[in-house]
Structures are given as C-alpha cells and as structure tokens.
Amino acid sequence: MSMRNIYRKIAKEHGITASEVKREMQGAIDYVYNKIDKSESEKIMQESIPRKGGIPTTEEFIKSLAHKIKR
C-alpha cells in the first residue's frame, strides 16, 4: 500500500483530509524529536530511525517502523 493510500484511508476513517493526516503526523514526530527531556529509550529509538535530515518525515518514520514490525 502506498503512503498516499495510507493517508487517505486514515483520513476517511476520521473525517479529515489526507493532507491534515500527514500534517498532524509530522507535527507529532516533530514534537517528540524536539523534546528536551527525553528518556534514554526515547533517544535510542529516535536514533534508530533512518532519515536524511534531523527529523524524519512521516514516510521515513512509517517505513522504518513497518520494517521493524516485519522482522
């Protein structure tokens, strides 16, 4: 399933747009990566997410977690 279809499915279930889903997800990711008082387990988990920039995109985050779940 493509990321676009994932956003659409979630949006439909919650009565919002796909762009709102993506924006809210990115906001949550940004929040946890910018937290100052992170636990060691949060730091380890965040460092394990492959990304091109300082904070992963929603796509990078979901793909990484999906890969970890498949293992």
From TrEMBL:
What GO biological process, any one, is recorded here? regulation of sporulation resulting in formation of a cellular spore
Q: Which UniProt keywords apply?
A: Initiation factor, Protein biosynthesis
A molecular function annotated in GO for this UniProt entry is: DNA binding
- A single GO CC term, please? cytoplasm
Membrane-spanning ranges: none
Q: Which residues form the Sporulation initiation factor Spo0A C-terminal domain?
A: 4-69
What's this protein's name?
A: Sporulation initiation factor Spo0A C terminal
